[in-house]
Write a structure and sequence with these properties.
This protein is of the alpha+beta class. A hairpin with a 2-residue loop joins strand 16 and strand 17. The protein folds into two domains: about 280 residues, 3-Layer(bba) Sandwich (FAD/NAD(P)-binding domain); about 150 residues, Elongation Factor Tu (Ef-tu), domain 3 (Beta Barrel), CATH 2.40.30. Strands 6-2-1-7-17-16 form a six-stranded mixed β-sheet, with helices on one face. Strands 10-11-12-13-9-14 form a six-stranded antiparallel β-sheet.
């Protein structure tokens, strides 16, 4: 794939999580010397419990294994691309039904030993407090970026982070929304009708309000509780409900100016008692964000309660609401699909910091950032994956979404381009997405990387 490296200056990878581990490995395998920085144990993190690289701080699951599922397709793509993270996950898998789950302690310890023993990887246990000014660097510090480095990144980009405490709304697959009930309309019919509106009458609203008030929440960790107090302007929907029966009707469920079709002449129609609005999340209109529905409810509770909303009874969620510490940058304004910063192409980023969600997505970002850093070190142009692959679609999304409303995104079939023909059966449709993705990835590997998968 690469000629013998003549690079004298090692590439710096900052952060030893999943993305940083993958990036460092891809660089070293390409013959490029790497300095991998990990601040633990010199500086500890409130979420970590060991000093190992690629520690899994939440679940030990990488998601569904089947390749006709979004996470499973990402696994399949990474296997073909030689991901060290997926290789080790396969090696240390434990029984988990249809999911790829690992013995987390052995998984992280083995990765640490493997990278530490690589002749081209120097593992430095120290905190990086500023962005490197020269050479090629990959930033993979994740949602718990240290304060000094976070401040340096903020100065570099000239922007605030989108969030230091992520309270994100659920995202729904468009075709699962009942369009016989939900309707497109703008408030007071101003401009283009850009929102889908789910109307509630008084009885429906009161039932929904009561369900929200009593639904079970996720217990925040101690370090997250300390940060949560800063989000008065971004309250969880259940907290808003607890403040009073009509609080939501004066907030995100405000019905003012929203006319339900067929209730009168334009401009004189009736307003529902309350309205849940959904905003288009992607250019194709496959995904819709529930406006103002940031939440800390347990995932099962979210599906139960939010499917009480008229039009969302059969809603398919590609992402449920989350509320946790999650520092991430405004990737659509800052990054290219190659994961290079627009203002400094020799600085790349990957992992949760760029607005992707999930272990496998972090590994995928590390693979691309590491591969492109290696290509830059060898004087070769960086690459972007085909948009028909799950990896390509994910990095195209985070680099081209609306900067104003950007929120982290997990891998999902809703971000893939449409198939040439409509396939109604969901399982068959996902299988077609998989077949196209893996075929296009193979072609791309041969033509772009010069590899035989």
């Amino acid at each position: 794939m690469f000629p013998v490296s003549t690079a004298q200056q090692p590439v710096q990878v900052i952060g030893g999580g999943l993305a940083g581990t993958e990036a460092a490995w891809q660089l070293a395998q390409a013959g490029v010397p790497v300095i991998l920085y990990e601040m633990r144990p010199q500086r500890t993190s409130p979420a970590h419990h060991t000093d190992d690289l690629a520690e899994l701080v939440c679940s030990n699951s990488f998601g569904a294994q089947a390749s006709d599922r979004a996470a499973g397709l990402l696994h399949a793509e990474l296997r073909r691309l030689g991901s060290i993270i997926i290789q080790m996950a396969d090696r240390h898998a434990v029984p988990a039904g249809g999911a790829l789950a690992v013995d987390r302690a052995v998984f992280s310890r083995t990765l640490t030993e493997t990278l530490a023993n690589h002749p081209l990887i120097e593992l430095r246990r120290e905190e990086v407090r500023s962005l490197p000014n020269t050479g090629i660097s990959v930033l993979t510090t994740g949602p718990l970026t240290s304060p000094d480095l976070a401040a340096a990144l903020q100065r570099f980009t000239g922007q605030d982070y989108l969030s230091f405490f992520d309270a994100a709304s659920p995202i729904v697959v468009g075709e699962s929304i009942d369009r016989r009930i939900a309707f497109l309309a703008s408030r007071y019919q101003r401009g283009e009708a850009a929102y889908l509106n789910c109307p509630l009458d008084r009885e429906q609203y009161l039932a929904f309000w009561q369900a929200l008030c009593t639904a079970e929440q996720v217990e925040l960790k101690n370090f997250e509780r300390e940060t949560a107090k800063f989000f008065e302007g971004c309250l969880p929907i259940e907290e808003m409900a607890r403040r009073g029966e009509d609080t939501m009707r004066y907030g995100p469920l405000k019905p003012v100016g929203i006319e339900r079709p067929g209730t009168g002449e334009p401009g004189k129609g009736k307003w529902p008692y309350a309205v849940v609005q959904l905003r288009q999340e992607d250019r194709a209109g496959h995904l819709w964000n529930m406006v103002g529905f940031q939440t800390n409810l347990r995932w099962g509770e979210q599906m139960r309660v939010f499917r009480m909303i008229p039009g969302l009874e059969k809603a398919e969620f590609v992402r449920l609401g989350v509320m946790h510490r999650n520092t991430f940058i405004n990737a659509p304004e800052l990054l290219l699909p190659t994961l290079q910063f627009k203002q400094r192409p020799t600085l790349l980023a990957a992992g949760q910091l760029i607005g992707t969600e999930g272990y496998t997505a972090a590994a995928a970002g590390g693979w691309l950032a590491g591969t492109n850093a290696a290509r830059l070190a060898h004087g070769l142009p960086p690459v972007a994956l085909p948009k028909t692959t799950m990896m390509g679609a994910l990095f195209d999304f985070i680099s081209s979404a609306s900067p104003k409303h950007f929120q982290p995104m997990p891998p999902n079939f809703g971000i893939l381009p449409d198939l040439p023909e409509r396939v109604r059966d969901k399982r068959q449709r996902y299988g077609r997405y998989r077949d196209r993705a893996l075929a296009d990835l193979s072609t791309w590997q041969r033509s772009t990387l010069g590899l035989c998968p």
